[in-house]
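In the lab's daily routine, each protein ends up as an entry in a very long ledger. A line of letters takes care of the sequence, but it says nothing directly about the fold. The three-dimensional part falls to structure tokens, numbers that each stand for a local backbone shape. The outcome of that step, for a single protein, is printed below.
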Amino acid sequence: MFLFKKIMGALLSPLPLCLLAGFAGLVLLWFTARQHTGKVLVTAGIGMIFVFSCESVATVMLRPLESKYSAPETLPDVDYIVVLGGGRVVDARFPTISQLGSASRTRFLEGVRIYHAIKRAELIFTGKDIAGPMGKLAVDIGIPEADIHVFPEPKDTKDEARYVKELVGRDPFLLVTSASHMYRAVMLFEKQGTRPVPFPTGHLCKDAPGVTPGDFFPDAMVLHKAERAVYEYLGIVWAKLRGQI
């Protein structure tokens, strides 16, 4: 079921979905008499790539997720800071910091910053294949091993919530993850009976002064925003269908 979820999530992301429509249209145009349907599919594929790559569209999709929670103005008195891993190790031959994707690096830095600000809380790193390098990097920069807990077993956020609960129980803790992922993460953790205090980071929607022509032109980095939004919305739907939230 986990593999099925990942495959479907990948296929329904904006770029694969647009390319799939385009390729299907080309097949019809080249090898069948269904020319009209082929033209429609190719046009739809190209059109969707253009739409998803526009800043104004991607922001409308992603902002509702990123604005669900804000970081607390005053850090609460907690015993644990839970940092969720994002993505997987790129290549173990590289230095530890290079093994972390951009999302994991941002979450890691935020977690460490909060750790130094609170001074008494312990760090929990979770996520299959990524928690280990995050824990190692924390040690490398001088954080005592006694203050670090690593859970490399969880394959997804639901599993991360279950593992964290075994350690923290009903005590409140700071939950650090990407702003786009926070809404789903909080629901999954609360479903397990835990008490997360959201601390979102890595915001992708940032207000710029005025409207520029670039807001309406395709951009590969903007397409990433749309993909993040679709990924999270699909994750929420899946979790609700499975009774996980």
